[in-house]
Prior knowledge:
CATH topology of the largest domain: Maltoporin, Chain A
Domain TonB-dependent receptor plug: 114-236
CATH superfamily of the largest domain: TonB-dependent receptor, beta-barrel domain
Number of domains: 2
Pfam family, one: TonB_dep_Rec_b-barrel
Shape: globular
Strand content: over 45%
Organism: Hymenobacter taeanensis
CATH class of the largest domain: Mainly Beta
Distance between the termini: 30 Å
Helix content: under 10%
Main location: membrane
Number of helices: 10
Family: Belongs to the TonB-dependent receptor family.
Amino acid sequence: MKQTILAATFYLGAATAWAQSQTITGQVLDTAGRPVIGATVVEKGTNNGTATGNDGRFTLRTRSANPRLQVSSIGYASQEVTAGGDEVSIRLADASTGLGEVQVVGSRSQNRSVTDSPSPVDIIDLREVTTKTGQLDVNQLLQFVAPSFNSNRQTGSDGADHVDPATLRGLGPDQTLVLVNGKRQHQSALVNLFGTRGRGNTGTDLNVIPAASIERIEILRDGAAAQYGSDAIAGVINIVLKSSVKELTANVNYGAYDAKYRFDDEKLDGGNFNANVNYGIGLGEKGSFVNATLDYNRREHTQRANIPAPDGLARRQYGDPQISNTSAYLNSRFALTDKSYVYVFGGGNKRKGDAYAWTRFADDDRNVPAIYPNGFDPIITSDIWDASGVAGLRTAVGGWELDLSNNFGSNRFEYGVRNTLNASLGASSPTSFNAGGFQLQQNVVNLGLTRNYKTVLQGFNLAAGAEWRREWYSLFAGEEASYRNYNPSATGGSQGFPGFQPTDAIKAQRDNFGVYVDGELSVTQRWLLAAALRYEHYSDFGGTLNYKASTRYNLTEFLTLRGTYSTGFRAPSLAQINFNSTFTNFVGGTPVEVLLARNNSAVTQKLGIPSLKQETSNSANVGLTSRIGSSLSLTLDGYYIKVKDRVVLTSQFSADDPVIGPDLQALNVDQAQFFANAADTRSLGLDVVLNHTLTLGVGRLNSTLAANFNKLRIDRVQTSGRLTGREEEFFGPREQAFVKASAPPSKINLTFDYQLGRFGALVRFVRFDKITLIDWNGDPMNYDSRITTDLTLNYALTNHLQLIVGSANVFNRYPTLFNPQLTETGGAWDPVQMGSNGRFYFAKLQARF
């Protein structure tokens, strides 16, 4: 009966919408009168939309008599027009970054559009992506649409289970700068210690910002430290928040995995539920607005501990953690005069997580049978608070545009452990503990000035500014029972994750001051020259001067050459400098106590390991962009990135080491490792993006081939102090393999997107290349290449309601299987490639009014 009612409702709604509709036709052109291919035309306040064909023309069925149409295309300023009964003709002006516009990352010019940038920039429209893919969080969205971006979910990796590390062009998570509306976003307080990606790095947690609050994401695939400061060695990710008004968007999404590998009879697990709402209010006639987003996401555990090891199971619980995210974000602007306004944006995120730790079996000497007669599986919990806020003023002063802002951000990570015990307390042990945690805060004051001189040759843009930043880092201890040993004959501390000790606790801070100048000169209408110079001084390691030079030349109307050369730097994070912990690692299934000693500790000083210093880089990018005919575009960008003195996490030295052994035995630990500027790396790569638009009858097919080819080499390993000459042990093949696995040789994305009236279909193939890791026996683990296939269908039930269904990894592909006792995480595979959860089914209901 329910199915009959639902079906009747579906057909009645669709029929009613169709009966009340009218047909609008038109053409979208640029200022030179050329057709704009693939421009998006949407009836405002609805999900009803279409795109222009090869001749810039479109046909759209609408419900209202005089609908408002929103017309947009990357590289052009968006327009709203009222469509009557006659044909609509629309001319889109080039997008600029003048007063009142959001900057396109990579340029501070007032009249530079993304289409003529001297550096490669990807623009990802989140409205399009979230409608046509099954991924819900920002990291996973980018993983499957941006080939140069890589992110893997971790398991058995302590904090990295709760904060997904991500990389750009195969470099570290902390070598990509993240901006929100052009302002520096704070990093996570977490240091990644385990897993295959981001090992020893800090990074920015992109998932604290809900996808529902984002208009677009700009990815600058080029070194930009001279333009934006520390961390921009690999590039910049700029998240642009929504500014729409008088439009309500609500989404309800659910998906689950079809598990191929499980013990029980369950077929689906890892349920992922998301609900969000976004609404914008216009204030007055001068462009003032307030746009707000609420988002809730809950992701359940997956269970993949299904492959037996030769001597029994390595773990009884292995899979994705359970995560719940609650976010609220706001973007606003308040006009003061025609030439000045105040802006405020930011938000908060509350995350709680449960992640599996290694199994303690019944006969394990770390178990107390009186509490757990069958052994136990500890759960590491997280309580993460993330908040940020930016307030600023933009105004015209003489011929200059001035931007003054203050930006504060905070990330606090608190650990807990449950379903566990402290074996040294025996049968009286608690089964849950507060294990301590850490916090990172940042405050940035920024002043920027921009001026465009239209009479200097074909135009000269000059920008200059200054920035002051203060950072705070603190590490705080857990409750006493989480770390203390009450019985020397037993193992102390909470099993799964020993709490931070009072001797680990620290509070640190530093200041940074930077000044920059940035110029772009259009020598002719075809030839652009650009340069940037930036000096920064850190209170903890000194100053650095960096530069960037760029050029772009239009050989013809359809072919453009571009190139850049830059130097860069990245200051070691406060977390890398000050983190200290004793944790339990499992080597071949055997628990080992490992000391990670902070950089200026007594142990590191005794070994002669010097204080951490900045990483430096030299990078070059040479590319071409081409528009072949009216429906085909191509970009090719080759790059070279050399990083010197890269901060890495060293190999682990054992207590029987002839040099360090006695010191470790005195500390009662089995192994130790450190942060050090130990490696020089070199990356050589190529980014390719090919787009094609084809009109098929009354429908439209967009095809995209996007690929990243990358080769990372470790040129030199540098040791020091008492460990001089022991390069193979200091940063050995196993640790080097983890760095190289973050830079897979290639990732290729082929997408076909077809739209016919209210119906749409998307098919995506993603090829993840092979990588090699080293197991605990020192043998290579060769993960073969894999191709995943995604399928999405969408249908507009009414002009305001859209249904999307589909499957990611529809053919249920998994990484190569290995002995769980020999992998890093104790599962049948490490967290590599496309993930290890298998086929994902999803459905979304989207309303827009």
